[in-house]
Amino acid sequence: MLSQRVLRWSSHGKTCQLLQGDLDSLAAGVQVNDAIIDFGLRYLLTAPTPFGKPPPSTQPDADQITILDTNLFPLLAAGKPYDKWTKNLSIFDKGFLVVPVHSGQGHWSLIIVAEPVLLIQGQQNNALRKSLPSTSSGTSKAAPNVPSKRPTIQHKHAHPSKTSIVAPPPPPARFRPYPPRTKGHPPSRSYPLLRLQDILPIDEYDPPDPPAGPSTLPAQPSIPPSPLPPFDTLAPTIYMFDSKYAPRHSDAKHLEAFMQTEALTKHRQGLAAGGLLYNRSDPQSMEACRHKLPRCNVVTVPVPQQGQNYDCALYLLHYVRQFFSHPSAYISHILNHRGKPYDELPRVYQQMWAPEKARNARKEWRTHIKELSDKWIIQDPLSSMHSCEHNDDHDDEITFLVQRKIPN
Questions:
Q1: What are 297's strand-pairing partners?
Q2: Which single residue of 98, 160, 301, 370 has CA 20 to 30 Å from 110?
Q3: Do residues 303 and 241 make contact, with C-beta atoms less than 8 angstroms apart?
Q4: Which segment of 27-41, 155-169, 271-285 scores lowest on mean pLDDT?
Q5: CA-CA distance, 51 to 48, in Å (whole number)?
Q6: What is the pTM of this model?
């Protein structure tokens, strides 16, 4: 029965419940649903022993990570009200913000924001930002005008000086092999190409080309790649993960606008401490203040790509599992390799993401959730005898369920 409850799990004051239909979405060739994603994110980041093992010592504590519900981002992208999902939520109190992103076409991707509090502290950091070397303009202070010790080079016709060195005269103008066009000459008519040895003495024209063979000319320098956008260390950073497509920059813009709105509506005192004063009842004042907030860095993370069309949610959970095992190390590697395709990166970086583990994630999740379900049914057999249905009309970001008795 699809509405049969198979698991009720709680951690850090949050409760997730899974139905049989949710568990069935982990079958081979099936799109994993949002209930599994919500449970998986909280299980990986808040469970004391995820998958039966304690988390790495380098993983942040659960109270340092904010996890947004899967239903929130579609509201942000559509411009719909979302107050009931965030009225009891403060995204600036913790070091990381985890955002599952649904594109509306059955595809899931991931966004992780590091240090969102820097959005509020941006004005306070302006003095420090000005003291740092500029990374956006590429300009620096001009060097003092020190007279050069090199001798002045002048041509014969120039006025001689004490330290002048006579340079050879400039080379003659290049010979034009085509006669000049005469007045009234039709454009369609052409002249034969004249050889220099037909006009100049033999000792004045260039020697013939060397015979064909390996080129002795120096290799032409390759065109340098386009420069990466400047990175502001005093602003939040949006890391975008996608297992199939290039991440959409519009998703980052929607999330940044959401963070700005949360800062303006809930952290007026913090912004005022940095010198940002505005009137909440005046839309123009709010908009002017919004433009003064620091802009977030946006980084596309090179990650392993899915091989099936229906594994995007599992790769999302895999990215979270790997990244939060050691965030500082992953951030360092990501910033060192940003702007490069995953397949062209060193093998050490590729193996850091454990691509083989991602390909086997479906079987691992299904087996483990089934084990958790069996233990829960033994501990609470009465609760498992009720069927449930998802109810999205709630104020918290967790999906609660409404019980109903199974008809006889």
A1: 237
A2: 370
A3: yes
A4: 155-169
A5: 10
A6: 0.72
Q: Is 162 within the bounds of a domain?
A: no
Note the pLDDT tens digit of each residue in 154-196: 545 545 555 555 566 665 555 445 555 555 555 544 445 544 4
**Rounded to a whole number, what is the distance in angstroms from the first to the last CA of the chain?**
14
CATH of the domain at 295: 3.40.395.10
Return the exposure string of 353-376: e unless at least 16 CB atoms fall within 10 Å of the residue's CB, then b: bbbeebbebbeebbeebeebbeeb
CA dist list (Å): 270 to 93, 274, 276, 281, 394: 12, 7, 9, 18, 29
**Does some domain include residue 224?**
no
Write down the pLDDT at residue 191: 47
**The tokens of 124 are what?**
């306070």
Is residue 329 in some structural domain? yes
Query: Apex CA 37: angle with CA 360 and CA 118, to 5°?
Result: 110
Residue 185 lies in a domain: no
The residue count of the chain comes to 408
Number of domains in the chain: 1
What single letter denotes the amino acid at residue 174? R
CB 48 within 8 A of CB 54: yes
